[in-house]
Every structure is written in structure tokens, then in C-alpha cells.
Predict the structure of LysR substrate-binding domain-containing protein.
Amino acid sequence: MRRTPSLSSLRLFMQVAVTSSFSETARLANLSQPALSRTIKLLEEELGVRLFDRNSRNVALTPAGAALLPTVERLAGDFDLAFEELQQTFAGQRGRVIVGALPSAAAHILPAIIAGFRRTHPQVEIILRDNLSGALYQQMLDRLIDFAVTTPPGAGEGFRFDPIMDDECVLVCRREDADGIGTPADWALFAAQPFIAMEPRSSVRLLTDGAFAKTDMLVRPLYECAQLATVGGLVSAGLGITLLPRSTLPMLGVGGEIAWRPMAPPRVSRAIGIARLANRTQSPAAQAFLDAVMRHAVVDAES
């Protein structure tokens, strides 16, 4: 073999072998018959063998042509399959997406979105990693996750952030104590009753500390918890009250032993949105899932 032939010339060889006709193959390939004949002649020269015996009426494979045909069929089939899969990847229908999220978003915002996305993109693998906001931003910098559903980044950190919801803070208390608390609840309650806080490094703790600073209150937590479920257990036991974003309430068991009340002004809330590196191009699958999250947010805002 003098050199490796092109796939296009091999496809033309295969078509001639199938149709047993140069004229029919030329018609199907939208080529002139002389051009097709030249292509087959060059292919034979490249391979160093004769591929077809032909006269004015018949075209037949030579033994060398018959040996080549199954190899070409396999190569063409593998090539077509590979590019079909690649086309699906480029269209966002195949691939892997690693998305990070705050625990509250991972538990109660993303599951329904993932379920709907999987119905339309069954060959896309979604990996969900929940973590605190600071860890999520570090994972994006380390390119361990594609994007995250979290709170906004600090200024000048090289991230793009698109808000998808406004997460208002509310007072959370034991259900049997809720009737004695006004609606809206007074901020002074947090100074008068034991306060249960999230741990200092969490985005929720930063939010609540900022809220108390905004209202000129000094509130010392009686307990500091790493998990929202722990906060819920302590509140249910009557050990104190807390201030939390509304998105976290399903993780506390609200509606059972726990209730909540909106706060009096000043209103305190946090933005939840999609964060990703500003200079990173998302994979087609990741972009498709990111778009699905954004569409879900628009639907929720309109409903």
C-alpha cells in the first residue's frame, strides 16, 4: 500500500460494489462518471491492486476488492457512529454535567429540574455535589464542577452570576410558639430568646450576622450548627428560635413541629443564582442543563 486512502474514495468504492454500476454510483454521488472512474483508478494505484473487473455491461469485484469491502463497510460504519455520537454531544444530548449547589438548592430546587432534564436528555449524566458557597467557588476555580447554584461571589473574583430567585429571611420557631409571635415578627425577639445559628463559615450565617448588624442588634447564638437538620431538631425541642432563608425551610420539617413567620422591616434576603467562571466555555451538555435551570426559574417567577 503506497499511502492510506481517503474515506471519501473508500465510500465511493463501497457504493460501486453495492450497485455494481459506475453510472448509478456517479448519479447517487452527484459526480460525473469520468470523475468517479478517476477516483477508483487512483484508489487502485494507492492500494496497489485492481478492485473491479468491468466491461461495457458488467462490474464485478476482484478478489482484492472482495477482501477490501467488509473492511470498508466496518470503517464507514464506525466513522458514522462516532460522528453521530459526536453530533449528539455537540447538541447537548450526550455528556456529563457536574453541578454544585448549596444544600438547600440541592435538596429542593434541583431534583425536579434534573428529573425533567433526564426525560429529554436521557444520555446526559448529571452529577450533583452539594457544599457551602465558599467551597463551591473553589471547586469552580479548580474546575471540579461546571457551575453552581449558590449565592453571589465577591467582587472581582472572575465569576459570572445570574440570579434566579430572591430568598427572603424568616423567623423559624416551634409550632406551638408561633401563635404568640406576631405577623410580621419583630426583630427584638432574637435578642429576647435563645438563638440557634448556622456555623460561622456558612453563607446563611453571614446573612444572619449581616441582618442583625443592619438592625443594630447584638445576638449571641446559643448553638452553632453545621447542618440545617440539626437546627430543625433544636428548634423542635424548644431550645430556641432562628432566622433562615425560606429556601431552607423544607430541610427543617416545617409544617410539623416547626413553623415560620415573615419578618418586619427591614427586609433581609439573599440572591440565589447560577455562578460559573466568566472565562470558561460550558460543554454543550452543561449549557443545556444550565438553560433548563434558568427556564425553571422564569416559570417559578411567573407562577
